[in-house]
Fold:
Amino acid sequence: MSYHASSLGCCAHVASSPASIPSFLKQQVEGGRTDGYWIEAFPFRAAQNSGQNLIGYGLGFQDTPSKIEMFINPFTNEKSSNWESRQLAVLDFPVAMNFADISGNGFNDVIISDKYGPSMNDIWPNGGRVSWLENTGDPDAENWTRRTIGFSPGMHRLKAGHFTTKDRIQICAVPIVVKSSDLTTPTPVIIFTAPDDPKSTGDSWPSEVVMKKHLVHEVVIFPSLDGGLDRVLLAGGDGVDLIWFDNSAWKSFNVGKGHPQTSGNPYWGAGSVAAARVHDDIAGYIASSEAFHGNTVSVYTKSTHTSKGIVDIKWTRHVLEDFGPLNDQHTGSIHEVVCADIDGDGIDEVLVAMMGSDPPSFDKTGVWCYKPVDLENGTFSRFKLSNVSAGRIAVADYLSNGRLDFATISYSVPGYFESPNPAINIFPSTSIIAEKLNDEVCFRVPRAPSTRFASELEFLDVSARKLAIVVLPPNTAHKVPAGSAVKVMAGTVTWLDGKSGKIEKRVLATRPFTHVSMSVNADEVRSQDEGAIFMLLKDSKTSGTPPYSTMDALVAHNIIPLHYPEDVCAMRFPWVKVEDRPWANGRFKGLEFYNLVGFHVRYADDSDDVIAHVQLWTAGVGVSAGFHNHVEKSFCEIHACIVNGTAKGGMRWAIVPDDKFNPDDPKLDDTGLIIVPDLHEHGPLWRTGRDGFPLLRKNDTVDYPWHAWLAGDKSASGKQSYDVWIAFEFPSFATHSVSHIKPHTSNLLKQGRYILSEPFSQMIVGLLNCSATDGTPVVAFSPSQNQTWDVSNVTGTDLYQLTHAQTGSLLAARWPPVDGQHIMGTHSPANMSLTSSWAITVHRDACVLPAQRISV
Structure:
């Protein structure tokens, strides 16, 4: 089956050049399972093409039937943020399932086979039941009514469609064997046709055996090219076959014989099959795994000048991968292949479900992706998408955002192969893009409030830390490993501290000339109303253990996933001695001072707004990074220390006027000092006004005092050691005021809903016509018109914003506010020379109305 995202309408964008394979973030749907076999993307409504639920189950055990569970998609369910389960049925040895609206009520019913038996060598002779479970339309309903469709021992795969008529739902159902251990007798291909009243409790559905095939392990619907009847792709001992009904007779076309017979091996042919779309050809190529539970991935390709479709075309088989020798039972690790356009370039990729192996193998576990490079010659590139056992893959647009995601269930079948930690996982497509930019990487991320799911991308392993960029939607929890730390780049991150029991909050910057810990003593962090973008620093055992006595122990590793662009994955990030940087201009000769560049983080929209530029530094004992004041370039810089190897490393800044300080021969008595311990960040060191906004020089650069990182002095032992820190260069932003004038406590403004009044006439301030249009004037009304305003603190500052409660419009004006100036309400407060951030206090003569009253 080929999977495709639905259209995004006129705003959708399809890249003209090949898109990079997206990254996928693993999220557990259900862990702690006892078994695992089948997973299906289940559209609850018949007309639904995104936001699907999941149905998952295992085969069960001799003494314990299997629970058929539906997991409700939290991305389309406002009631819960978890994948809540509903038990649809309890069945003995269920195998395959599909869905269709059999009852005709607009909701998809479940079609499922059960009573298979414990294994292919122990088939229940009276089993192989096919049933349907009625969906009444209540997503909370459990134990759906089951009705029998028919029986055939060894029933193993089925699909719903219209094969001989479009008037009735039909089911193509195929056993894998007809009796225990019989691998040679052909099995029937059965077509069940729904009766007039499928809800009647009478006999089984009318059925017809249309042909027989050998050891069929996969059944896939192939739609007609002209909108007619459905066709069926089969993968089995005969290889890959397409079968279909043509007017009055069933026909068959063999695409290829698959894996050839070999001496002593009872399996040959194909084990799974999927047709891949290439632009407007729904069978641009065909993917297959070989043979039954084999270790071979193959594709069938056709000439670029060949007609569309499958029939009467010469197909050429190409072996893409052989995962090595089979086991003693002549089986391997591949259980399914699917085709889906996961990168949106109009050409399907192949996703391969690897169940795992004994002994464990990285190559034989998880999901591999094969992307066409040269189809006619069968050339594909390969990427790993998941490292957890995958029995089957369910591809769908689970997040309803126009991008394809996938879900897997671990393969864990007693007596065959049992995954050590069976689970159901979903892998949403992440929206973090990585591009090579000269010697640096540019990461483009979505604005946190605009995304509905978390994205995480690991990119660098250095100094016993794995660095990752994380984007969280508003009010979203994100699991973090023990020992992690966070550096916020946008928004707010909070967590419940496991030791103190207090809520910890981190924003873009702590208070000026202080430091704060980045360590998270919790198993999850949470964003607030504005969402969050942050760097996550996770423990690593692959990049040395601090402290570091030589730079050889400080090698940095590129850990950007291999499905990102090849040029990005091939990049190296060496520590370069600063004296060798072209901008050093002869300085820092002989100093143990090194730099690692670098990473740009920008928004992935038309604005291309900068979030931060990030680079790393390290300095040995007694080294000064050189006093500087950023007079050439304007940004606000925060340093986050990974390892304070010298114990006394930190930031110094001049406390005397700039012209009284000699950066080439600094007197430390003329400086202040913040020692920045391991996993701490310092606050702003730039000069600000009383409102917290940076002061600017005449050339529009941020006004800094002379400042530098100075490593600690030599220890008594005389051993070398290195400080390692990350420099975050942000566009200028407001922070807490450094004013030494403390307002009276009674005059501090509390966040809440207020009525604004003109202080002399007591008239109420509001928007003209209560309009949300940009530039709407703010005017005074009689006290009878109570328009209200929400007053909230601007995160990380002492400033406030005034938001019109009825329209969401912000109050904006020129800064500083003066008597008689015009003010306006606007949705776009970034107008030239305007601000929506205010340093305001409660007027001493304000009286109390139903809402609080303040003066402006």
